[in-house]
Design brief:
By secondary structure, the protein is of the alpha/beta class. The chain folds into two domains: about 200 residues, Glycogen Phosphorylase B (Rossmann fold, 3-Layer(aba) Sandwich), CATH 3.40.50; about 150 residues, 3-Layer(aba) Sandwich (Rossmann fold). The protein is built from 14 helices and 13 strands. The strands form two sheets. Strands 3-2-1-4-5-6-7 form a seven-stranded parallel β-sheet, with helices on both faces. The protein has a six-stranded parallel β-sheet with strand order 10-9-8-11-12-13, with helices on one face. Strand 11, helix 11 and strand 12 form a beta-alpha-beta unit. Helix 1 crosses helix 13, helix 3 crosses helix 4 and helix 8 packs parallel to helix 9. The model has no long low-confidence stretch (mean pLDDT about 90).
Length: about 400
């Protein structure tokens, strides 16, 4: 709802995929609730891709002022990194037109995806102030580390999740007064008692899984396929049935992750001990983590294993190098090399009976959204010194 242009700062928040939409929701809500801010939500990129088409979830949750379609279906059916480069170029041009029309005071992006990079590049080059959430983190992914740090160099305000990430930003030459430790918005609402487990109907619909496999492309298709195959074998060996498997992100190489999963679904009875879903809404995903907390685990290479699972006290088996360098708590069991026995041993350890659940505060105290809104309202985005990017050293 508009509160008057003169009294409010207009904030364009960009969401490009399911990977960050759930994390951004506390920021979206806090901006909308702040008396000196006016929310403008822009949906882009992977939200429009079939079969999940998570744009439907975004449209059902919030009013959207613009939709930016970036990716195009590859003729081969396989997405390559060159396709992402083309999508980023189309996104920059489209975001520039959106920002010229919306005239934002702030453009807010999160993380390291091509949608965030395209929006940050269009805004920074076009003269609009950029605020970057989760800058300074380390996580290798496909091009994630380079993309995240590139966004940080385009940004004018840094909303870091941890002190270590803030320190990296300052060592990269970002002025210390522009770097603020706010925590991760992924933790907002995750304090004990603030979320509830899935209801019985939803739990039955998912097959009452004991564990969840969430594997994304990492840039090494051979390792991704090997890890996925090993995880499926280990889950069956340890009677983790049904195993709930969620589809990977729409990144180059996702076919390598999907191939062993779809093969298991075709062969198994019933369903090879696997329940497959393209997407779960964040509320359902968090409720599921609560359900498996006492006797199960999250398996794969999602940041949720290091961030949300740590806050909820859920064990996570982290496969490969996609999250290499990211801070982690004691809930994580790392398997750096795609070897079947190592994956089997890690899953076996994660499924052991455990004592009292411990909650980690590595990524904040659950108040990131409110802190971010207050900073956007309190810092003048038209300050010439803020808009003038230069290294601090």
């Amino acid at each position: 709802m508009s509160r008057g242009r003169a009294a409010c700062r207009r904030v364009c928040i960009v969401t490009g995929s399911r990977a960050e939409f759930g994390l951004l929701r506390p920021v979206i809500d806090a901006v909308a609730a702040h008396p000196r801010l006016e929310r403008r939500l822009v949906a882009a990129g992977a939200h429009f891709l079939a079969p999940a088409r998570t744009i439907r979830e975004v449209r059902a949750s919030y009013p959207i002022v613009a939709e930016v379609r970036m990716q195009r279906a590859a003729r081969s059916g396989r997405t390559e990194r060159a396709d992402d480069a083309g999508a980023a170029g189309r996104g920059m041009a489209s975001f520039a037109r959106v920002f010229a029309r919306e005239r934002p005071d702030w453009v807010v992006v999160l993380g390291d995806r091509i949608e965030a990079f395209a929006a940050a590049a269009a805004a920074s080059i076009g003269g609009w102030a950029v605020a970057h959430v989760h800058g300074g983190d380390r996580a290798e992914g496909i091009a994630d580390e380079a993309m995240r740090h590139a966004i940080s160099k385009l940004a004018h305000l840094h909303l870091a999740a941890t002190r270590r990430s803030a320190g990296r930003l300052i060592r990269m030459g970002e002025p210390a007064e522009r770097v603020h430790v706010v925590g991760s918005p992924a933790i907002d609402g995750l304090r004990p008692g603030h979320i509830r487990a899935l209801d019985e109907d939803s739990w039955e619909d998912l097959g009452r899984p004991r564990a969840v496999l969430l594997m994304h492309p990492s840039g090494d298709s051979f390792a991704d396929r090997s890890f996925t195959e090993a995880a499926l074998r280990a889950a069956r060996a340890h009677a983790v049935e049904p195993l709930l498997v969620l589809a990977p992100n729409h990144d180059p190489g996702r076919e390598a992750v999907l191939a062993p999963i779809l093969g298991r679904l075709r062969r198994g009875t019933p369903m090879g001990g696997v329940v497959f879903r393209q997407h779960l809404a964040r509320e359902s995903f968090l409720g599921l983590l609560l359900r498996v907390r006492a006797h199960g685990c999250l398996i794969g290479n999602s940041s949720a294993g290091l961030i949300e699972c740590a806050a909820l006290g859920v064990r996570a088996v982290n496969l490969g190098r996609r999250q290499a360098g990211r801070e982690r708590a004691g809930n994580v069991i790392d398997v750096p090399v795609a070897e079947g026995p190592a994956v089997d041993d890690a899953i076996r350890r994660a499924l052991r009976p455990r004592g009292r659940t411990r909650y980690a505060r590595t990524f904040g105290d659950g108040r990131a959204g409110a802190r971010i809104a207050e900073l956007l309202a309190g810092i003048d985005p038209r300050d010439a010194e803020l808009r003038r990017k230069r290294n601090a050293y």
